[in-house]
Each structure stands twice: as structure tokens, then as C-alpha cells.
Amino acid sequence: MSHITFEREDQRAFWVHCELALFQSQVHLWEELDSKKADDNSRREFGLAEALNTYSSEYLVRWLANRKNLICADWTKIWHYVAEAAPFEGRLFEIGLQWLYFMQAEGLDLSEAKSVVYVMLQQARYSKGNPADLGSFLSDELSNNLPTVFGLLRPTSLFEALLTFLGSHGEADDVLKIARVYR
Predict the structure, then answer these.
(1) Which of the 8 DSSP states describes residue 175?
(2) What are the backbone dihedrals phi and psi of residue 160, each rounded to the nearest 5 degrees, phi first?
(3) Is residue 100 within 8 Å of residue 116, measured between CB atoms?
(4) CA–CA gap between residue 73 and residue 78 (Å, rounded)
(5) Torsion 109-115-118-122 (CA) sign
(6) Which end of the chain is more exposed for a tag (fewer CB within 10 A), N or C?
(7) 60 CB contacts (<8 Å, ≥6 apart)?
């Protein structure tokens, strides 16, 4: 199939490598799911038993910033809820960046966090945080793990915003390394 789609051998080899990596990650995912204990990582176990609208934005921002809550299964939902309820809350950018660092440290896939990354790219314009930190993180993460790029191709506006952001705030060599994959 790759010889029909791609002209060059290096493109075909990269595509085959990515397909194999995707297949292996799916097998690994199912192995982890089968071996998981019935850990309750719901927000109820992390002190949020009531509906989110019963908590103030300040309380939820502090909850999101608490490092022990980063493993909560509903963390991204709560982060998006606060981002929607308080769109100009500048601390959310820094909190989201800390969560991305946590995701990286835990070996989790960046494409799983693409909804947070998408909002953070928009927040970078008015946040008091340093967009270069996010740019450096993303360019490093994507250039060192090129198959992750495929998880960020959709929606198209995310990929365009990502490349535009990386062009302004990322590491030039890393951005070029990512771009070389698509020539």
C-alpha cells in the first residue's frame, strides 16, 4: 500500500514505521486496560463530589493546579469547563503547561491532550505565561516523537495553528525537522 501512496523510499519507510508504532501502541493500550485494577480516578475521589457549577472558578483553578489531582480521569473536562467559564483566566495556561509536563513525564501520548493544546494555543496570546515555554515543549515533543504529529492532524485548524505557533515560539531546528517529514 505504501508504494502506491508515496513516491520516495524514505516516505514509504516512515509510513510503515508509523503504522507499526500505532499497531504496537494499540496492543500495549489493551494490555494495560486488561491489567488495570479497578482504581477510581473519578473527580469524586479527588474531592469534587458536587456538580462543577456549584464550585467557584477560583476553587476549580486551585484544584486544577494541585499536583495530586493531575491523575484524575476528569482533569481535562474540568480544565475545559473552567476555560469556558472564565476564558480570560491567565493561570489556566500555566496550569495546562504543568499538566503537559506531567503527561510527558508519565509517558502519555501528546495526541491524547490535543483538545487542551488547541485551547492553549489560543490562550497563549493573552496569557501572562511565556508562550516560548509551550513552543519549546511542543517542538521538542513533536520532533523527538514524529508519529505523534499524526495524532494532531485533525482538526486541520489545530495543525495549522500548531505550525504557526511553533514558527513563532518553537525551536527552529525542531520545526524544520517536523516539516521535513512532509516534503
Answers:
(1) H
(2) -65, -45
(3) yes
(4) 10
(5) negative
(6) C
(7) 52, 78, 81, 82
Total-model pTM: 0.68
pLDDT, tens only, 128-152: 777 888 888 888 888 777 777 777 7
Q: Which residue has the cell 500505532?
A: 22
Span 95-131, pLDDT tens digits: 999 999 998 888 877 777 888 988 898 888 776 777 8
CA distance 78 to 82: 6
Counting DSSP H helices and E strands in the chain, the numbers are 10, 0
Residue 169 in contact with residue 135, Cβ under 8 Å? yes
What are the contacts of 78-86 at 24+ separation with CB within 8 A? Answer: 78/43, 78/48, 78/52, 79/116, 80/115, 80/116, 80/119, 81/52, 82/57, 83/119, 83/123, 85/57, 86/57, 86/61
Bond into 147 cis (ω within 30): no
Q: Report domain extents, the chain.
A: 8-37, 39-89, 110-183
